[in-house]
Amino acid sequence: MRFLSMLVIVFLALQSYAQEKNWTLLVYMNAHGVRGQGDDLSDFARQNLRWMQKVGSTENINIVVEVGTSDSPDAQRLLIQKNKIQVLEKRSNVNMGSVEELKDFISWTVKNYPAQHYFMDIWNHGTGWHAFSKEEDPAGKWHPGGNLQISSVDRVSDISYDYFTKEYITTEQVGEAMRFFRKLIGHKVDIYGSDACQMAMAEVAAEMYQDVNYFVGSQELEPGEGWPYDKFLMAWTENPKASPAEITKFLIKSYDDYYSHGGGVTDGMGVTLSSLDLNYFEQFMEAVRSLKEELVTLTQRDAGAIYRIIATVDRYRESPDYKDFYHLVKK
Fold it and tell me: Whole-model pTM?
């Protein structure tokens, strides 16, 4: 009997090990908006899910999604398979603007879809680092959550707006979630990405550089269709042994190809998507500190020259104070 018990234990251990894949892609797809309003991303969420299932999970990659739409405050957890979406769990009255819900999704996924490597994708609106107060922006023009109560401008801004609960996840809390993720799996999260507008900023990356290897995002606004998941997943699954850096390049190339060839609505403007290797971020911050120390010693005349340079630096559509740092330093 003892021998039989040992065989059962070994079998269960082997079964558990066999379930571990090379990668798990987690997509936290928050489309909790007001139906029919500009913040309603539900149609884009459904489109992205259709794109995902054109490829689906493979023997090497799990694709797991938590999605909520404007239809109700509920959410579902899904396994994306080729030509099929499997509903794994239905959840009632979910606050997708809560970092605790994001962390719960991470824990649940790691437990049920373990992998050697993880790609965390937060899908929603994004506003970069700058938060406008209600006094500065009473109509909510600059903030996708314009009807939310924003009390100050001296903090990093937000992502994952839930229009049912009127709450959102701050960028600091995204960093908290990535620290939680790293501790849970015992190593850095391989890739973090924001399928959202204006999130590729040093201020955002700084919240997670100790917990994530590669950071993907857009400095510019993203078109409503977001990432072309079918094209990206096809490139990834055709190269199952690709490194995290290579996977981010597949995503960027797919994104560029899609919008460069008229695949989505860009309002006549270009798109941006970039990947940062956060293992170099400490050196970047030290270089910025050194630059700051030099700038604060400038004479008034030289400081005026710097301000004139800043006025000519590449900027982004929605926020006039969003400038490209590399372009600034180069000039």
Answer: 0.87
